[in-house]
Amino acid sequence: MQGSDTVSPCDREPCKGDQIAYEQARAALQKAQRVLQLNGGSVEGTYQVKTPINGFVVEKLATNNMSIRPDNSSNLFTISDLKNVWVIANVYESSISLIRPGDSVSVTTLSYPGKEFKGKVDKIMNVLDPTNKVMKVRIVLSNPDYLLKPEMFANVMLNNAENKRMLSIPSTALIFDHSQYYVLVYKSPSDITIRAVEVESTIGDKTYISNGLSEGEKVIGSQALLIYQELNS
Length: 233
Hints:
The chain has about 230 residues and is of the alpha+beta class. The protein contains 3 helices and 13 strands; from the N terminus they run H-H-E-E-E-E-E-E-E-E-E-E-E-E-E-H. The strands form 3 sheets. Strands 8, 9, 10, 11, 12 and 13 form a 6-stranded antiparallel beta sheet that branches.
């Protein structure tokens, strides 16, 4: 007696489920091929990461053996063209009232002695730093030659437009002692007087005095601290 084999429909033609799986795998392959093509077509684990803009890498978060997954939204690199840069300056409380948006500033750096970069105050923060009690000010600078680099230290000089006349002395003539500023008023080698003064501001090698000195009076600008200590001994 001969037996008969039962042949299912899926043995004669592809099952519907197999066809769906095949189409899904084919779509995944095509997607992978397109991604490979966008990244240089490498199948050996080397890929090109292309940026949508020209510029310089200013931050790198990618590391060796790092897995790049679609669920990781972190940037691999940060790109900037550096044609315009920001300087974040610290302003002390006593000078806050002198700063306004749009003020012109001059910026100098240790890297380029004697060279000034011109910029403008772009934004003034409204909160003081709780640690050092300074206010942050953002300054925009043009950087066509790419001389200014990220993380450089800079000195900022504000060109204040207030129409005031004020006496100025060399900053080296100023003495600070017991929470007070002093200068040494010189009349003769035997007539040197210690005088308390009020300082309006210090800009570079000049200090502006709002009270305590009269026009024409002479002050000692060299070795002032040493002479001051001798007079007090």
